[in-house]
């Protein structure tokens, strides 16, 4: 979920989550006496806004003489850096804040093990039991060779380095995006699905190098329900690209600046709807 | 030529350490930039010359470290000899003045061989010249794998060091006195430890439970600093292997689907706190379950996770705090403010930062001197990031 914190709202974004009331499963009887009232309770979740930014100083001689339109490509790189920062902050936050399930369905004998199909099933079962909302409804089957229906699913954010392990699960439960009834239903970063989990891969997914029991790389595969996490930006401050003409630098007006800044906070708004499925890898990495 | 330079200065009073006897605590200075030059003035030791005193120290990122006997040195110091007259010395890379930029997690220091682990509570780890300090977080691997020795449970758990008994030993929050633990010794092959460089970028965080005392309230000990506040709401994730799975937030037999949360009612120390959940009827916590060679793969650790926070307002203002204090971490002692502005206590906070560190490694020649001074010394620091540096 993504929300915007209103301007002039202070430094901290506050969420309120009502607690469930006890279902009245005891009959009233015929005494005419009301049952005692319940006390409504709520949980409070706060997230502190943080500000980020970076920029470049560009000498006017470069702007004047460079044939590549330096302001254009530096602006582009700054924008990419900013969006990457948003993702990396959220990534590290999820790794830090969400609880973990260690993969045990794999065969490499490590702790955690590599991913086995039972791990996908376990995490989906856990989130289902916790009443997490799935992100995607299922995809109905079509009469096409090699395809089969896709279950309604949670998303799992995973590393591209695990793709060869996923391929190794073909026939055991993994289904490639290209075996969906309609590839139009897939997301650009989607690699496939296992049971009730659709897998999105990224080269920037969290990996703790050499930190398993056997010293192998540990992957944090974040499996999310829809209500698990909230990304908060500051109203009117989600992205600012700032160009300052050399006129504003020293007395000789030699240097322009290009910069980006943004504000972001994040919170687990439903801790029961997210798990980091922690795993190692079975296959070797290419170089 | 100072349009884009960054200049900063400040002072502090040294905590820990005795002149000529023991090292002070590591000092972390957060700045809005990563300096390329830092200098220190120890006013106390400059005013009262005495052997081992270091009144001045300098570090420059642009100067390649000096390699002497295969060790790299980069912090230059002025030091009093026995007379006492000022002379010079150096401190090795990373042990004197160094810079840091903590913005991304999953970064680690160099691996070191573990010589052994003692059966003790807390467990004592033996690593030659480990260089760690209390508050550093480490992670171990390769311990007693594929055996029935429960020391293998320490693998992969991030531990914030409790005590450093000497240069070769440190303690972690794990009770390894149980009958199923066998001490490790003789540098087992593959038994390694490394430092987690930035373990608390986002607080509060998920944490491994290492001990629990059950009763009308529940006392919890975690492997890392808990970074929790009194009043904070928490949830348990305890696989049955560890015992008290009855404390888990779900399932809830009274109100189906409604997670069971508890509140932190007091904080004992950086690792230990009390939760208001009555756990009298729960199974006892144990880390002494009988292991087989096949138990470890897939074993999920008992965890506690912050789910909500203090409903009673912002940070308390004390006589020495700023008017609008930032959230602080870690837990109950040695609290350090984040670089953010004010926030409600217990909020999810971004704790990324950058700046420089004054380490606690001994000087090269006079190994009884430390650049960070000794307890009570007043040190002024000046940090710079230059517009122009050659090279």
Explained architecture:
The complex is a heterodimer of chains A (287) and B (391). Chain A is of the alpha+beta class and 287 residues long. Chain A is 18% helix and 32% strand. Chain A has four helices and 15 strands. In chain A, the strands form three sheets. In chain A, strands 5, 6, 7, 8, 9, 10, 11 and 15 form an eight-stranded mixed sheet that branches. The model of chain A has no long low-confidence stretch (mean pLDDT 93). Chain B is mainly β and 391 residues long. The longest helix of chain B has 5 residues. The relative contact order of chain B is 0.23. The mean pLDDT of chain B is 93. Chains A and B meet through strand 2, strand 3, helix 2, strand 5 and strand 10 of A and strand 17, strand 20, strand 23 and strand 26 of B.
Number of helical elements of chain A: 4
- List low-confidence stretches of chain A: none
Strand fraction of chain A: 25-35%
Helix content of chain B: under 10%
H/E element order of chain B: EEEHEEEEEEEEEEEEEEEEEEEEEEEEE
Largest interface in this structure: A-B, 63 and 63 residues
Question: What is the β-strand count of chain B?
Answer: 28
Helicity of chain A, as a percent range: 10-25%
Question: Helix- and strand-based class of chain B?
Answer: mainly beta
Q: Determine the mean pLDDT of chain B.
A: 93
Structural class of chain A: alpha+beta
Head-to-tail CA distance between termini of chain A: 36 Å
Share of β-strand residues of chain B: 25-35%
The number of helices of chain B is 1
Question: What kind of assembly state do the chains in view correspond to?
Answer: heterodimer
